[in-house]
């Protein structure tokens, strides 16, 4: 009986390992696709990247910067955002021409007003996570509008929370 139980247990463990999830090689395919997409977006957009630890360091030094959360106001920003960030919605898919229907009816002029007159000021744009394209759109449009010191935080609020940094909420 003991031998039968051990055999069943061994089979269960084996099946769980085989069926329970992707192996490290399969996961690497997904990581690679996301990394290549991010690299291509960064090169095409002409902006730089910043990590959550780099951003937190600049915030701790009280560096003058504008942090923009590109996610929906009610569904995301009001629930949690990087402290000090302001919200300006951008779509997930590439927005080659300004489309106010995709930016909560806001215009490019309103984005410029948010970005401010200093074209060299540090601007950090983020969304939810690496795969999300909202921050790419926000960074691309800041560059198109003449801003020179634009950085994208690819890990977004997920990486920020994963690093256990404090978050802001509405209210």
TrEMBL record:
CDD domains membership: RHOD
InterPro entries hit by this protein: Rhodanese-like_dom (IPR001763), Rhodanese-like_dom_sf (IPR036873), Thiosulphate_STrfase_CS (IPR001307)
Keywords assigned: Signal
MF terms (GO), sorted A to Z: thiosulfate-cyanide sulfurtransferase activity
Entry keyword annotation includes Magnesium: no
SMART domains with a match to the protein in the record: RHOD (SM00450)
Superkingdom of origin organism: Bacteria
Residues spanning the signal sequence: 1-21
Domain Rhodanese: 61-169
Protein name as it appears in the record: Rhodanese domain protein
